[in-house]
């Protein structure tokens, strides 16, 4: 990081992808806007989570916007809008409470309208991006035709637990292990974000250790994330927290988001067409039949052979194909 890493190369790549800003509800939002060379491409909003960033989608940008150049078909092309969540990356840091999942989803709908895609568009996300995308689906803003998720936030019912298959029992056991052994960061973020925020702002090594820990725990890598994600890509991700001092502000999204979830309770079934991808190393997985109980119109469901919580970085080829297959059914 200190001697060989080249941030300027990453900076040039960000600028190549039409790095832009727009103000929504008084907050400056940074986003990438990559138009496909194919005029009939479907606009797609892609939302990251923590400790991800807009750069986590970089290996999907080419195949999604220009499928022909990557051995695909022009009919699968997308125009991409990839915003940084409030308080993340080069988006502004909220100075008042309220910028949680719901307000962000409403802002994203405004963003798609502002860039000219309000009549017909789709949305995709994982982690907090999945929460925002799910909220969009429930809001049903004009033009949104469907969503794709590579993580589904859910609570198994008593009946599902009692009738779980062996594979579903393993999913439940993995979720319990995550809650018991690996979720300490989430509990700190959602209850005392300012306390740890000072440390994340003060020390690049401390920030790197805090971020790297989740890549260790949540990637499908046996605790060695460099096996599945290039070291420079990991450092790029950390830099998008360090350079704009987004460590403290980004984790406040947990404080906002978890309060929303506790207040709202279990969500009703998703009312619009949806696709779901499950990756074996994901922190929270569910079966097809459990997914069908939570989506009124589940058009696509698939389980990947490898990959974890950071699917766009670990297995971009499979996630790209799943996104294509989902929206191929809705174009």
UniProtKB/TrEMBL annotation:
<dbReference type="Pfam" id="PF06441">
    <property type="entry name" value="EHN"/>
</dbReference>
<dbReference type="InterPro" id="IPR029058">
    <property type="entry name" value="AB_hydrolase_fold"/>
</dbReference>
<feature type="domain" description="Epoxide hydrolase N-terminal">
    <location>
        <begin position="1"/>
        <end position="57"/>
    </location>
</feature>
<dbReference type="InterPro" id="IPR000639">
    <property type="entry name" value="Epox_hydrolase-like"/>
</dbReference>
<feature type="active site" description="Nucleophile">
    <location>
        <position position="127"/>
    </location>
</feature>
<dbReference type="GO" id="GO:0004301">
    <property type="term" value="F:epoxide hydrolase activity"/>
</dbReference>
<feature type="active site" description="Proton donor">
    <location>
        <position position="254"/>
    </location>
</feature>
<feature type="active site" description="Proton acceptor">
    <location>
        <position position="309"/>
    </location>
</feature>
<comment type="similarity">
    <text>Belongs to the peptidase S33 family.</text>
</comment>
<keyword id="KW-0378">Hydrolase</keyword>
<keyword id="KW-0058">Aromatic hydrocarbons catabolism</keyword>
<dbReference type="InterPro" id="IPR016292">
    <property type="entry name" value="Epoxide_hydrolase"/>
</dbReference>
<protein>
    <submittedName>
        <fullName>Epoxide hydrolase</fullName>
    </submittedName>
</protein>
<dbReference type="GO" id="GO:0097176">
    <property type="term" value="P:epoxide metabolic process"/>
</dbReference>
<dbReference type="InterPro" id="IPR010497">
    <property type="entry name" value="Epoxide_hydro_N"/>
</dbReference>
């Amino acid at each position: 990081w200190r001697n060989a890493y080249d941030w300027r190369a990453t900076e040039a790549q960000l600028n190549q992808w039409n790095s832009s800003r727009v103000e929504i509800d008084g907050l400056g939002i940074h986003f990438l806007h990559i138009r496909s060379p194919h005029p009939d491409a479907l606009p797609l909003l892609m939302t990251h989570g923590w400790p991800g960033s807009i750069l986590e989608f970089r290996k999907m940008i080419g195949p999604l916007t220009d499928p022909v150049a990557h051995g695909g078909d022009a009919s699968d092309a997308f125009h991409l809008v990839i915003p940084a969540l409030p308080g993340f990356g080069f988006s502004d840091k909220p100075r008042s409470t309220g910028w949680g999942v719901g307000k962000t989803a409403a802002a994203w709908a405004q963003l798609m309208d502002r860039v000219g895609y309000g009549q017909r568009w789709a949305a995709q996300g994982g982690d907090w991006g999945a929460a925002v995308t799910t909220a969009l689906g429930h809001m049903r803003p004009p033009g949104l035709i469907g969503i794709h998720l590579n993580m589904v936030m859910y609570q198994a019912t008593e009946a599902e637990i009692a009738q779980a298959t062996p594979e579903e029992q393993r999913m439940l056991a993995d979720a319990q292990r995550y809650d018991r052994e690996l979720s300490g960061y989430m509990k700190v973020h959602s209850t005392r974000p300012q306390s740890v925020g000072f440390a994340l702002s003060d020390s690049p090594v401390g920030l790197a250790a805090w971020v790297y820990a989740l890549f260790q725990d949540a990637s499908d890598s046996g605790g060695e994330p460099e096996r599945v994600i290039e070291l420079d890509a990991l450092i790029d991700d950390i830099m998008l927290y360090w350079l704009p001092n987004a460590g403290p502000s980004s984790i406040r999204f947990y404080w906002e988001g978890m309060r929303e979830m506790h207040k709202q309770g279990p969500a009703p079934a998703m009312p619009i067409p949806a696709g779901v991808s499950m990756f074996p190393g994901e922190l929270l997985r569910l079966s097809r039949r459990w997914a069908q109980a939570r989506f009124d119109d589940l058009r696509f469901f698939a389980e990947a052979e490898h990959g974890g919580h950071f699917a766009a970085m670990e297995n971009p080829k499979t996630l790209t194909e799943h996104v294509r297959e989902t929206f191929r059914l809705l174009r």
